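FAQ

Q: What does a record look like?
A: Structure on top, sequence underneath. For example:
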């Protein structure tokens, strides 16, 4: 028998697991139903990638279901290590309060420090205070001022929630995690994955070194353009932050109305031709 014929014979033996096709040595004994109902089977399957996909899907469903009915919201990031007697903590409380009074929900990582302060300010002002926690080996649970919270296993699912349900990002002084959220937001705006999305940094003294490096190194070497620098606003004024977010939300609403009218007009123009 030639190798070609031998290969053809082997291919006749196959097994299907849902949409998955297996042949040769890849064929597993038993069926999916059998493995599900056989309580004597091993438990290692809960740690396999296909099962992780289901966990990931469930986290998206949980997050979407929890946050879908939020009012307009602002995601705020900052250090979990900021003590309660630090000026940044007081500023974060004021930011949460001012955002709540302007009608915005606040979304934070739900931890201590700046996150706690923002949640506290919003909650005490009667606003919607949201915390999106993450499973970490050293992190504590959601802070006491989170009124609506969920804990995630996966960073990328949590990041999606921060962006999807926010009208703006406010970046308070923080560390690597804060920088991660800031640069991801800037990348999404730069690449038009999200539009009309203010990214505002609080604390000119804290952030000035980074801004100078972006201008003097990244811009100077052509790694970013002048327009990219305009994606960032740096300020020490809480009222200015909220004012910019309110103005951006107004522009977003006007553009949404204009787009809806344009779609309706196009539909009316096409309708007679369809009859």
């Amino acid at each position: 028998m030639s190798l070609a014929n031998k290969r053809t014979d082997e291919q006749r033996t196959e097994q299907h697991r849902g949409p998955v096709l297996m042949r040769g040595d890849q064929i597993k004994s038993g069926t999916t139903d059998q493995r599900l109902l056989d309580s004597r089977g091993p438990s290692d399957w809960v740690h396999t990638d296909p099962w992780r996909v289901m966990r990931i899907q469930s986290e998206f469903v949980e997050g979407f279901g929890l946050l879908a009915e939020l009012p307009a919201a602002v995601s705020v990031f900052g250090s979990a290590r900021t003590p309660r007697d630090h000026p940044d903590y007081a500023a974060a409380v004021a930011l949460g309060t001012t955002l709540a009074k302007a009608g915005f929900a606040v979304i934070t990582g739900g931890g201590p420090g700046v996150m706690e302060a923002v949640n506290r300010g919003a909650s005490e002002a009667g606003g919607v205070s949201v915390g999106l926690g993450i499973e970490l080996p050293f992190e504590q649970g959601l802070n006491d001022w989170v009124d609506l919270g969920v804990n995630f296993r996966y960073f990328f699912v949590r990041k999606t929630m921060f962006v999807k349900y926010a009208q703006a990002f406010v970046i308070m002084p923080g560390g690597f995690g804060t920088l991660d959220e800031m640069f991801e937001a800037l990348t999404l705006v730069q690449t038009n994955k999200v539009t009309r999305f203010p990214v505002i940094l609080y604390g000119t003294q804290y952030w000035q070194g980074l801004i100078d490096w972006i201008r003097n190194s990244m811009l100077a070497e052509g790694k970013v353009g002048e327009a990219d620098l305009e994606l960032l606003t740096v300020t020490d004024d809480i009222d200015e932050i909220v004012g910019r977010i309110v103005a951006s939300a107004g522009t977003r609403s006007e553009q949404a109305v204009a787009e809806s009218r344009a779609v309706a007009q196009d539909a009316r123009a096409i309708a007679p031709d369809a009859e």
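Q: Is there anything notable about this one?
A: The chain has ten helices and nine strands.
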